[in-house]
Amino acid sequence: MTKRGYFDQFGGAYIPEILQATFKEVEKTFDSAKNDPGFWQEYLDIMSTYSCRPTPLTFAENLTAHFGGARIYVKREDLNHTGAHKANNVMGQGLLVRRMGKTRVIAETGAGQHGVATATMAAKFGFDCTIYMGEVDVERQRPNVFWMEQLGAEVVPVRNGTRILKDAMNEAFRDWATSMDNTHYVLGTACGAHPFPEMVTWFQSIIGTEAREQILAAEGKLPARVYACVGGGSNALGLFSGFLDDPVELVGVEAGGRGLDSGAHASRLASADASIGISQGYKTFFLQDDDGQMKETHSVAAGLDYVGVSPILAALSRQRRARFAAATDREVIDALSLTMKKEGIIPALESAHAFVQAFKEAPDLGPADSIIINQSGRGDKDIFTIADAFNDPSWKQFIIETAERYHA
Ligand SMILES: Cc1ncc(COP(=O)(O)O)c(C=O)c1O
Predict the structure, then answer these.
(1) pLDDT value at position 1?
(2) How far apart are CA 21 and CA 8, in angstroms?
(3) Which ligand 1 atom is the nearest neighbour of the CA of 235?
(4) Which of 108, 124, 290, 335 suits 389 as a labelling partner, its CA being 20 to 30 A distant?
(5) Ligand 1: which of 77, 79, 85 to mutate, most ligand atoms within 8 Å of CB?
(6) Which residues approach ligand 1 with their CB closer than 6 A?
(7) Whose CA is nearest to atom 13 of ligand 1?
C-alpha cells in the first residue's frame, strides 16, 4: 500500500521543519472532519444555502444536434456563488479554519476566481484575508482584483519570478511560515504538500457525486466519457471522483497555449515537455529545465497557467486511468464562441479547454452515449481577454471612451 499522502510515487510533504506542526494540525482537523458525519452535513447546508448546490446538469441539446454524436451534458459549476468550482473548496476549508480557531486566511490566485472565493468566504466567516497574485495576473484579471479588495481582502501583487501563479504560491508559503499561529493557507487546488491534494479533492468530490446521480436520472446509464480542464487539477478531480470506480473514460484537458511545439504552453501530462521533480512541497510532473528551474508557461486562461499538476492526476495518468489532451488558445476561443451561440452559456476560458476536446470527440460516439463536460466557471471575468480575441470594434471604442473620461 502506498504511504498516506502519496499517489504511487507522486505527492508527499516536502516542507521546511518550521511548517511541519502546522501541516500536522491541518491534517488532524481534516481527519476529524472526515470522520464526523455532522461536518459533511454542515458543509452541504452552507453549500446549498450560501452557494447554489446542487448545481444543475444541463443537456446541451443544440450542441448535441450540431455535432451529431454523443449526447452532451454540461455540469454547471459556473452557477456556484462567486462563479466557479473554487467555492466548493474554499467554503470547506473555511469550516476547518473555524474548527482550528484561526482568524486569518491567505491564498494564492491565478485567474482570481480562487482569490474572490477566498475573500468571500473570509467576509462571511469574519476572517482577515490576504491574497497573493502574480503581477501579470493582476493586470489580466483586474475585475477580480477589484472585487477581492471590495470584499475586504488585501491583494498583494507578486513581482518575483515570472509573476504568475507559481510565484504567488511561493509568496503565500513565505507568509505562512511566519504567521501560522493565527493563519491558515487556503490552497486553491489539489496540489502542494499533503494533506492539500487529498483534502481539496474531498471537497471538490461533491461535483462528481452530484453529476453521477444526475446523469443516471437523466439517461438511465453512466456516461461514456467525462471531460474537465486541468490547471492544478481540482475541478477535474472533483468530477472524476464520482466515476473512478466506473467504466467511464476520464479526460483531462490542459493548456496547449500557442501549440505544444511552440514551447509556449502549460501542458504537463499531455506533452512530453514535463519531467518528475519536487517543488512547492510535493513531487509531480513539472515544466522545468535540466537544473530543476521552472520554465515559463503560457495560456490564454490564467487559471491553467501553472508549472505543476496534482500528484493524484499524475498517478492516474501513469496508471492510464485518465488520459490527457491539450487545447490551444485559438481552439479555446472558437469553442467558447460556439457554446455561447448554440447554448447561451458563457464558459470561463479555463473551462472552454474541456469543451474543445469534447467537441473533437463527440462525433466519434453515437446518440446512445452521453458525455459530461465540467463547466468549472463562468466567462464573465474574461470579458477583456475574450473581447480582445474577438477583436470587437465597439468594445474597443467603449474602452477608449472610458479611458478618455478618466483622463478628462
Ligand atoms: C474557472 C476555473 N476553472 C479551472 C481552473 C483551474 O483550476 P483547477 O485545475 O484546480 O480546477 C481555475 C483556476 O483558477 C478557474 O478559475
Answers:
(1) 58
(2) 25
(3) 11
(4) 108
(5) 85
(6) 84, 110-111, 113-114, 189, 229-236, 303-304, 348, 350-351, 376-377
(7) 303
pLDDT for position 140: 79
Residue with cell 471590495: 150
Q: Which three cell numbers stand for residue 177?
A: 511560515
Q: Which residues of the chain have pLDDT under 50?
A: none
pLDDT on residue 205: 98
Which of 204, 269, 376 for a ligand 1 pocket mutation test, highest count of atoms within 8 Å of Cβ? 376
Span from the CA of 128 to the centroid of ligand 1 (angstroms)? 24
pLDDT of residue 406: 87
pLDDT in tens, 7-27: 999 999 999 999 999 999 999
Q: 405 C-alpha vs ligand 1 centroid, how far in Å?
A: 35
- State the distance from the centre of ligand 1 to the C-alpha of 401, rounded, in angstroms: 33
If DSSP codes are grouped into helix, strand and coil, which group holds residue 406? helix
Give residue 2's pLDDT.
Answer: 78
Q: Enumerate domains of the chain plus CATH numbers.
A: 7-48+85-196 (3.40.50.1100), 53-83+204-388 (3.40.50.1100)
Residue 329: which residues within 8 A CB-CB, separation 6 or more? Answer: 255, 256, 257, 258, 299, 300, 389
Greatest Cα-to-Cα distance within the chain, rounded to the nearest angstrom: 68
Say how far apart CA 403 and CA 243 lie, in whole Å. Answer: 49
Contact 191, 197 (CB under 8 A): yes
Rounded to 5°, the CA angle 126-237-162 comes to: 70
Nearest atom in ligand 1 to the alpha carbon of residue 109 is 14
